[in-house]
Amino acid sequence: MKISLNWIRELTPIDVELDEFVALVRSKVGEVEEVIDYDQKYRPTILAQIKEKKEHPEADKLAVYMLDIGTPEQVQVVAGDKTLEVGDKVAYFPPGTAIPYNPKHEPGGNVVTKVKLRGIESNGMIASERELDLSNNHEQVMRIATDMEPGASIADVLEMNDVAIDIENKALANRADCFGIIGIAREAAGIQGNRFATPEWYLDPSLERPDTRAVIGKLPLTIDNLADNLCPRYMAAVMENIAIKESPIWLQSKLVKSGLRPVNNVVDITNYIMLLTGQPLHAFDYDKLKSKDPNAKDAAHITVRRAEAGEKITTLDGKTHELNENNVVICDSAHPVAIGGIMGGLDTEIDENTKNIIIESANFEKSNIRKSSMQFGLFSDAVTRFTKGQDPKACESALYHCIRLITELADGAVADQVHDIYEQLEEPRQISLSLARANAHLGTTFSADEISQMLANVELHNKMVDEDQMVVDIPTYRKDLQIREDIHEEIGRLYGYNNIKVTLPARTLLPAKRNPSIEAQKSIRKALTAAGADEILTYNFRGADDFKRYNQELNCAFHIKNALSPELEYMRTSILPSVLDKVALNNSHGRGHFALFEINKSHTKLDIDQDGLPVEQHTVALAVSMDDKSSANKNGGSPFYQAKKYLDNMLQQLHTSEHTYSHLADTQFDKLPIWIQNLVPLYNINATALLTSEREGETFYLGIVGDLNPVIKMQASLPAVSSGFEINLHELIFMKSSGSNYSEPSRYPAISEDLCFVVDIDVPAGHIVGLAETALESKELISNVEVLDIYQSEVQQKDGVKQVTITVSIQHRSKTLSGKDVAALTGKIADKVIKDTGGSLK
Amino acid sequence: MKYSSEEIQKVHKQLEADGSKLPANEIKKKYLSKGGILNQLLRGIKEVAQDQRSQFGKEANELKRQIEMIVDAADSRNRAVISEGEKIDVTAPFDVNTPADKRPELLSTSGSQHPLTKELENVLGVFESMGFNIEECRQIDNDYNMFEALNFPIGHPARDLWDTFWTDENLIPPAHTSTMQNRVLKKYDIPIRVVVPGRCFRNEATDASHEHTLHQIEGVYVDENISVGDLIGTIKTYLEAFFEKELKIKLQPAYFPFTEPDMEFLISCPFCNGTGCSICGSTGWIEAMGCGMIHPNVLEEAGIDSKKYTGFAWGFGLDRLVMIKHGIEDIRWLHSGDLDFIKKF
User: Fold this and answer.
1) Nearest residue on chain A to B102, judged by CA atoms?
2) What are the DSSP E strand ranges found in B149-295?
């Protein structure tokens, strides 16, 4: 919101330099986004008077003017506007002036130079309103009605010798009062430690209340307010014999500096009152309203009501909107003529022929205005103000002040009684305050006097009821002040938070508890990055196409009803597909062999907790990929083992307890947790394992690891050698052993032996390892068993067998193992394996 | 798959687009029928230079095989389960008959941690050292936690300031980590010292400096006699520990429905020490976070006696911190998953 500092000065002094004032506003009111120096913008432009007018000898469409610019020598300029007359006053850009109109914010702007136009020298330019950045009018040179002498700066002539500050609206979101100059001026006084006094006419409407006794019924108006609480107050006045014309310079200047464009005196005055008080007003053309009303006879009629579904209105911006029951409309007896509190209708617009007007000063309920404004995409200055919650009390003084100005500046006269419809108006409230509490809350040591003054400066009048208790009167325009903490804020803010003594809480020495999930994630990241995998983050939002590409069920994904685009319309049900998308991306960038992982959360509609919220599956997903080149001529076997290598490594680094790999193809899918079921279509199930662990006799599912489904690989542009896993973080945390895995090392040498078994093709190698480990289980022994080789000759393939070679390393805790000892132990292993699997030792 | 022939590459691209849109029979018709795209492509072999024809033929066949696979896959899309090859031994560390030098190996160079999670670990480390517990944020929440419990009744205009996404069920991918505040206040015993890291979502069009997916860290502190001075001191202490230097601070009033008083916390730019640089936009100051004293309604809603206890809360974004720390100019890199980016960390 742009605030003219000169306008502030009309209400309260600014005692400090600009920089300091801006710093005060920033630290005590809200962020200042821009400081606009209008003086600098308009200072070089000069008031000139036409002294002589000549035809251009070479061009019909140009005229040559001699200008008095306050210097002894007159200046010759060529202009396209041939309608100027001797004596007219205009704005003159001497060569070297930057033209104020600079919509693209080009540095330095467009600079006027001395030129020859069709052979005639033009020493500068005379300006249109658009070139002066005052309005969009570019048809004519701007005529300036002023008594000032040629040579004066336009900054002074047009009252642009001013600076405006643009305060961020967001910081004032709960300060309806600050959307008017009076409110901001009150703040300006308060932050400088000055006492503010609101103009009398604002506080006491009776001071400007027009005497309507003699004019009642001249231009009759009747009003019904059927909108109840959506329109808590509706005031309107009829004025006749309006002379529509341009507003005086002081008024136009104020609008321009506030970021508004002048239109005509009536519209400008309503805007001026809005800028001054924060109370939006609207003017209707009385005769248009009456003549378009099919039921009107002698009187014009206004009804405030909810719209009927399907009603339409074309607003002042030329756009047509379809209305429904949630919108408040201002109507004649039949049709909407304005969307209440949002924008007026085109049909009853004030134009140059308007003679009689209705001025509306009403209050509309803020959340309804917000909803309707969003529905139509209409964000007017009135919407900005009404959505903050304006004070219905302000309707009256704003209307009377408007009537006074229209009388003065548009020759109008009141032509009926002033209508005022309301049920009940809020009365001023009081808030009680404990000064000790306020000081404790702020960390300050203010005396009662200091607090009393700070509050009184912004017209929060107060009195002490005892040593500690203060009662503060809350004006109705301060809707943000509801509880005593709001007054604490007022004190802290006006004093300046920056002046509060910085302290640290007096605290106990309770240490933070480690969060197991955060700790597990740290360990996983450490383990996986050490193993060469790169961590990525991807969006939760996916498109329907993404689900299709990974053959995933879309119906169980949460749908975002106000998504940014169709690609971001659903919440993902698994992490792995997002990771695989990035595998495809990086593969296409020529990365040969790489692994990516993400730790994140996914959701499905099929897994809802007791609060109606989806259970959040926190998982780690990893994919490992080798392009054709990296895997060329490599008889590396199923890609499954690539992903499993990463998973085994991760589990080992996390020191997890016992877990089991079982064949996904042997699993009944519908017994699996939903989030795992959602992952099944991604895999080639002949080369995929389900990872489980047992706890207190129950099976827990950690996730699945495997080779990816060949169709998915194709659909998602993944290399043939790509595999992955997705593992549940929560289950991993349960599996992390809490204690230490330490066992005292032995001082005696370890003996290694290889054992080769011929077993049935279906006997898992892991099973043989497990049997060997069981065989070696002893408090006296430290052992390690690994698979050394798995081999199958063509003959063995036909016979349905394979050979598995394991290597066993054994150490005794208290002696050196003899050959005999080792032979006994390997014999025990062999017996166990042969007995269990029916295989043989090779 | 990359094709050397431009024509084939073009058809491949078209296929990729169609593959996700058209039903299988349409694709079959469009590509594999007599007058279909593939046959047209094959007829074009006459235009191909003699020495490239064999390559062209090979690639065209490869493409044809792909199309057939898509059609087959699409035909059986409802049969979600797909198996290929023999059932393997999932307990083994490598496949049968894999020579020792071809067995799966971990990559020999180490990988990179994402800069956001790395920074998050740093931030959380500082807070843990200050005695803060950590509570993770939800990624889908309800209106109650996102708004109502935070003193934003239904219809409150300030709800707009949060640019929220909504699911069909009126659940919310939270727009701020404060969505956890009510839970944290209920779960922990006083004195409460908790930080909440989490992913947040804003309905905001993406460009170089705007993202719909963001990371925030919320802090909550509740005890007896907690003051604005304590709020300022605690945040300053954290920021100085994080940036490992002394900082000047500045506060500006702000408005959040769930705090009172509320403010914006600014610090002297740690990169130029307040002299003005590109990171702070030559102002010498950086907006570090929004913060304030927890609104009594928020405390009461969580069952905490607001007459006895006071507290403060804050929330700050991690993404911008990471960007300015590393000089990342386009926020979209963070979620790009592009190794060209990730490998720089």
Assistant:
1) A636
2) 192-201, 213-224, 249-253, 259-268, 285-294
Query: Predicted ipTM?
Result: 0.86
- Are A143 and A91 in contact by the 8 Å Cβ rule? The answer is no
Residues of A in contact with B78 (CB under 8 A): none
Q: How far apart are the first and last CA of chain A?
A: 88
Distance from CA of B51 to the nearest CA of A (A): 24
In 10 A of CB A488, how many CB atoms?
25
Torsion sign (Cα): B246, B251, B256, B260: positive
Tracing tokens 């070479």 back to the chain, one arrives at: A58
- Total number of residues shown for chain B: 345
Residues 6+ apart with CB under 8 A from A836: A767, A771
Q: What is the number of other CB atoms lying within 10 angstroms of the CB of residue A510?
A: 11
What whole-number distance in Å separates Cα of residue A579 and Cα of residue A583? 6
Tell me, what DSSP letter sits at residue A515?
A: P
Residue at token pair 């209708």: A345
Q: Report pLDDT digits (tens) over A81-128.
A: 999 999 999 999 999 999 999 888 888 888 999 999 888 999 999 999
Q: Does B84 touch chain A (CB under 8 A)?
A: yes
Please give the Cα distance from A209 to B222 (Å, whole number): 53
Neighbour-count burial for A313-339, b at 16+ CB within 10 Å, e otherwise = bebbeeeebebeeebbbbbbeebbbbb
B244 touches A: beta carbon within 8 Å: no
Amino acid letter for position A205: P
Crossing angle of helices A435-442 and A448-457, rounded to 10°:
80
Chain B hits for A645, CB-CB cut-off 8 Å, are: 93, 104-106
Task: Give tens-digit pLDDT for A592-640.
Answer: 899 999 999 999 988 888 888 999 999 999 999 998 777 765 678 899 9
The beta-carbon neighbor of A665 closest among B72, B83, B109 is: B83
Selected for mutation to probe chain A from B9, B69, B90 (highest A CB count within 10 Å) is: B90
How far is Cα A341 from Cα A229, in angstroms, rounded to an integer?
14
Q: Contacts of residue A367 in chain B, CB cutoff 8 Å?
A: 155-157
A483 touches chain B (CB under 8 A): yes
Q: How many CB pairs under 8 A join A and B?
A: 402
CB atoms within 10 A of CB A573: 28
Cβ of B117 within 8 Å of Cβ of A564? The answer is no
Candidates A537, A662, A690, partner chain B, best to mutate (most B CBs within 10 A): A537
Which DSSP category does A438 fall into?
H
